[in-house]
Amino acid sequence: MGRLGLVGGLVAAVIGVLGWRFLRVVRTPDDGSREPIPVDGAQAWAESMVASPDHNRLAVRFAPSTIASLELLPEGRRFYPRIVEDIAAAQHSVHVIQYGFKPGHVADSFLPVLVERAAAGIPVRMILDAVGSAVSGVSKEMLDGLSAAGVQITVHDAMPPRRTGTIGDRRVDWTSTGLGHVDHRKLYVIDGRIGWMGGAGIEDHFEDGRFHDLFVRVTGALVGQLQATFLGSFAELGGRLPDGALSDYFPDAADPGTIDTTFLMNWPPGWLPVTDAAERLMDGARERLEIMNPYVGDRGVVDRIVAAAERGVTVRMVVPDAVHGNAVAYAAFQHHYDRLLAAGVAIWEYPALVHAKALVADDEVLVGTLNLDAWALYRNPEIALHIRDAGVAETFRRDLFEVDIAASQAGAAAAGQRARLRNAVLERMAPLL
Prior knowledge:
Layout: H1 3-22, H2 42-51, E1 65-67, E2 69-74, H3 76-88, E3 94-98, H4 105-119, E4 124-129, H5 140-148, E5 152-156, E6 163-164, E7 171-172, E8 187-190, E9 194-198, E10 211-212, E11 214-219, H6 223-236, E12 259-266, H7 273-284, E13 288-292, H8 299-310, E14 314-320, H9 327-334, H10 337-343, E15 346-350, E16 353-354, E17 358-361, E18 364-368, H11 374-379, E19 382-388, H12 390-406, E20 409-410, H13 417-429
Parallel strand pairs: 3-4, 4-5, 10-16, 13-14, 14-15
Antiparallel strand pairs: 1-12, 2-11, 3-8, 6-7, 8-9, 9-11, 12-19, 13-17, 15-20, 17-18, 18-19
Helix pairs in contact: 2-6, 3-4, 7-8, 9-13
């Protein structure tokens, strides 16, 4: 074998190993051995994580809890000002997990209040994804400025080397923990009393109409579990937190609420409560199933949707149109239009990049960060709220799906042999994209 052949063989071997390590689908069955963490146990769990950070212990199961209120806010022009308002009013702590935080008009609305709260002596802590937030690229100067102003920022590295600690004091951690998986979570926890969850980064395209997304604002007992998740994640990335009791971060909810809700988190490799919940809702829908998602690239998900329609469930989907959506993702999903439409699924194409991730099955709602593609379903950290309440389900139908369907056009299968062949090829590649 010549030198060129040897090099080619080595490259192929490396690609094969990396593909097996990071692209394979791993599922860890929930055998019940993980004791669910109730709200009144969230503080103790967070304290144990701070005392002894452990990546694997973030593969956690949370017990069902309650929320007192839920506000559904579609469109960045609606939810960004409200989030900033809550941060500006914070009296104890501001905690943020974000996949995408980049300079721009939206970031400019966040920066002053983050700096002001830190200057007022209120801990402001952030977890950012290195890839999604371009931490070493366009966002570096902005993040260095925040760090200098007292904002504590940890970073999840999907690419080596993995580093721990906060910006300004990061050090190499010679492990592969977390590598190969981007942190796709988006979460704000204000004073341990208010939680925000949705699909949007702090980026201009979520405000100016190019991307269509949503956030929900919740209060109630469950916020304590959101707080624990942030604190455990921050500690695992090397962020510094107070030693001992963290009771100040877990205030009693003024109103624990009565809306039955479970907080779910996927944690790679293999721990997939959000994915499991999405599959159960699709499989268990009896009368109505509504899905809004930008990337429906998993064949198993499509099979579940078709099966629901074929057993008589009214199924409606809202996805991006061909002009505004991701071209590859659109083509891969359109490959399935024949099956979906033949089964009776109503596909509505919205004139923007639909980035919201919402699933409503009868009287249950799943809302959060889960795309319906292989990366989100099986590989990345993801979060969601599973809400079991007829009133909340009706709110999503009335204020999200009905509004967006009215602004959409009915989807149609691809016409022409070339387009169909292209879609078929891209659909086969979808698990890798």
